[in-house]
Design brief:
- With 379 residues, the chain is α/β, with parallel strands linked by helices.
- It folds into 2 domains: 200 residues, Rossmann fold, CATH 3.40.50.2000; 158 residues, Glycogen Phosphorylase B (Rossmann fold), CATH 3.40.50.
- It has 14 helices and 14 strands.
- Strands 3-4-2-1-5-6-7-8 form an 8-stranded mixed β-sheet, sandwiched between helices.
- Helix 1 packs across helix 14 and helix 7 packs across helix 12.
- The longest helix is centred in the last third of the chain and has 29 residues.
- The protein is globular, with a radius of gyration of 22 Å.
Length: 379
C-alpha cells in the first residue's frame, strides 16, 4: 500500500480542504494516509486516517522555529512515499523531504505574497521584507518539489512558471446527499463562518446589519482576535449579531443549511478579488443566494451562475437593502439559491477535483516506479 503523509503546522486537524476533502478522498481509493498536525489535541485514528499530533507551541515564533521542526521530524520517521504539505513555513522542510527521494507536493492554499502585505500587526518595512523574501524563496525552491497544487484558476500562470507539474484543485464541495439538519435557532438568520477579520469583511457585515429592517440576525463563527472582537462590539450593528465561537465541521454545515442566505463582503485587498471561496460554494451547495462583492472575479462568476447579488461592500445601506429584498421576495431568494445549487451539481463539485488529486498521486507513483526500473536495468 502506498504511504502518503499530509503535513500542517498551522491548520486544524479537521480542516475542510485537508482532512475532509483531500485526506478522505485518498484514503477511500486505497492510499495509507497519515496527517501530521500541531494542535495539541493528541493522536487519533479516525475514518481510516492516522492523525499524529506533535503538540502545540505557545506562540507564533516558537511554532515557526520549533513547531515546524517537530512536524518535519515526525514526517521523516514515517518514511512515506508521498509527502503533501500545506503551509508556507514548511517550504524549507519540503526541500529536505525531497532530498530523501520522496515525492513532495506543496498545496498552495493562498497567494501568500499578497496576503503577507495584509498583516497590519507587522510594521510595513518588515512586512515588505518578509513578502519579498518569501517571493524569492518561491523562485528558488519551488522547482525542487514533485508537484504544486493551487486552488484558484488565476494562480495557474504565475506558479506554472516555477514548476511545470502543477494541478488546479479547487475548493469545491461534496454532492453527497445531505442529511436533514434540524433548525438550530427558531428565528431567521444569516450565517458566516471562517476566519474573521477586517480584510474578510467583518466590519462590512456588522455595519450592514445596522440598517436591516426585516426580522433577521447575523450569526458569525470562527477565529477572531480579542482586540478586534472588542472593537466590533462597539458598532451599532452588533445588536443584531451573535458570535458563536469556533465550531466543528458538522456544526458549521448545520448553520449553512439553515441560513436564509449567504453573505460575503470581502474588501478588495490581497487575493480577495478571487471568487473561488469555500464559503461561496458551501452557500451554493445548500441552495442559498449569496450577497457578494461587485469587484474582481465575483462579478463574472455571478454573471455566469446567477446565484446571488453583487454589492458595494463599503455601502452598508445598499447591502442591507439587498438583505431585506431577499427576505421579502421569497421567489427571488429561491430562484437564485436553486441556480447556485444546480451549478454545484453540474460543475463546482468535489468529486471532479478528487479525481484530479488521485490522478496526480498515481502519476507521481508511476514516475517513481519507472525511475526504479531504469535504475535496476542499469545495474
Amino acid at each position: 500500500m502506498v504511504k502518503v503523509c499530509h503535513l500542517t503546522s498551522v491548520h486544524p486537524r479537521y480542516d475542510a480542504r485537508i482532512y475532509y476533502k483531500e485526506c478522505k478522498s485518498l484514503q477511500e481509493v486505497g492510499f495509507e494516509v497519515t496527517l501530521i498536525v500541531a494542535d495539541g489535541l493528541g493522536n487519533e485514528f479516525k475514518e481510516g486516517i492516522q492523525i499524529l499530533d506533535v503538540g502545540k507551541r505557545k506562540n507564533k515564533l516558537k511554532r515557526f522555529f520549533f513547531g515546524t521542526r517537530d512536524v518535519y521530524k515526525k514526517a521523516i520517521s514515517l518514511n512515506a512515499d508521498i509527502y503533501h504539505f500545506h503551509d508556507p513555513e514548511l517550504i524549507w522542510f519540503g526541500v529536505l523531504l525531497r532530498k530523501k527521494n520522496a515525492k513532495v507536493i506543496y498545496d498552495i492554499h493562498e497567494d501568500y505574497y499578497k496576503q503577507i502585505f495584509l498583516k497590519k500587526e507587522i510594521i510595513f518595512p518588515i512586512r515588505w521584507t518578509i513578502a519579498k523574501s518569501y517571493k524569492l524563496l518561491e523562485v528558488l525552491l519551488f522547482h525542487f518539489y514533485s508537484a504544486l497544487i493551487v486552488p484558484q484558476p488565476s494562480m495557474i500562470s504565475a506558479y506554472r512558471r516555477l514548476n511545470k507539474n502543477l494541478e488546479l484543485i479547487c475548493n469545491f464541495v461534496s454532492i453527497k446527499p445531505i442529511n436533514k439538519i434540524e433548525q438550530i435557532y427558531p428565528y431567521p438568520y444569516i450565517y458566516h463562518g471562517g476566519g474573521l477579520s477586517k480584510e474578510r469583511g467583518l466590519l462590512n457585515m456588522i455595519n450592514s446589519m445596522e440598517f436591516v429592517k426585516t426580522d433577521i440576525i447575523l450569526i458569525i463563527a470562527g477565529s477572531i482576535s480579542n482586540i478586534l472582537l472588542n472593537e466590533v462590539k462597539n458598532l451599532k450593528g452588533w445588536e443584531r449579531v451573535k458570535y458563536v465561537g469556533l465550531l466543528s465541521h458538522e456544526e458549521s454545515m448545520s448553520y449553512y443549511a439553515n441560513s436564509e442566505m449567504g453573505l460575503i463582503l470581502y474588501n478588495n485587498v490581497g487575493q480577495y478579488y478571487l471568487s473561488y471561496s469555500i464559503k461561496l460554494f458551501e452557500y451554493m451547495r445548500y441552495g442559498k443566494p449569496v450577497i457578494m462583492p461587485d469587484f474582481g472575479e465575483w462579478v463574472k462568476f455571478n454573471a455566469k451562475n446567477n446565484c446571488g447579488i453583487n454589492v458595494n461592500v463599503n455601502n452598508p445601506m445598499s447591502v442591507a437593502k439587498q438583505i431585506d429584498m431577499l427576505m421579502e421576495k421569497n421567489e427571488v431568494k429561491e430562484h437564485l439559491g436553486n441556480n447556485g445549487k444546480q451549478s454545484i451539481e453540474k460543475e463546482y463539485n468535489w468529486p471532479s477535483e478528487a479525481k484530479k488529486l488521485v490522478n496526480l498521486y498515481n502519476n507521481l507513483i508511476e514516475t517513481n516506479l519507472s525511475s526504479n526500473r531504469k535504475s535496476n536495468e542499469n545495474l
